[in-house]
Design brief:
Blueprint: E1 2-4, E2 8-11, E3 17-20, E4 23-27, H1 36-45, H2 54-59, E5 65-67, E6 69-72, H3 80-87, E7 92-93, E8 111-113, H4 119-132, E9 138-141
Antiparallel strand pairs: 1-4, 1-5, 2-3, 4-8, 6-9, 7-8
């Protein structure tokens, strides 16, 4: 879950320049590499770094953006698209193609705008969505 303090334009390689509105966003991804979620989040928060994923560009933007929480669940399979599809019923896809360059499930975007809800309300919705998928999720705050 990412908070954007004010609107700005971001350049995302092949996706070009895109507008990002103020508000909360849910980004779905996986952390299958060494170190799991801790290593992946630490990498996304580190500076400077090579920008490997679209979310790196977002978190390193000149406009104030902040990773406020990670909602995560351990699985024995890739579940980011399953989670993303469930979240698309609740939130609006933000930037076409964002985080979905290797997506084979037709998600369209793995960055969803959460609307005008409060952080607490959004986290509640995220946890409920994971639960409906049979995933035991936990929240890690930053």
């Amino acid at each position: 879950m990412i908070r954007v303090e004010r609107p700005f334009t971001i350049r995302l390689g092949g996706l070009g320049a895109k507008a990002v509105e103020r508000g909360y966003y849910a980004y779905t991804g996986s952390a299958l590499g060494p170190g799991g979620i801790e290593a992946r989040v630490a990498r996304h928060l580190s500076r400077p770094k090579a920008r490997l994923w679209h979310v790196d560009y977002l978190l390193a933007s000149a406009s104030p953006t902040k990773l406020v929480a990670a909602v995560c669940a351990s699985t024995d399979r890739r579940a980011e698209c399953i989670v993303n599809q469930a979240l698309k019923r609740l939130f609006t896809p933000s930037i076409d193609g964002f985080g979905a360059s290797d997506c084979r499930s037709g998600c369209g975007a793995h960055l969803l705008r959460c609307g005008g809800s409060s952080q607490r309300a959004i986290l509640k919705l995220l946890l409920e969505a994971y639960g409906r998928l049979g995933l035991k999720a936990e929240v890690r705050r930053f």
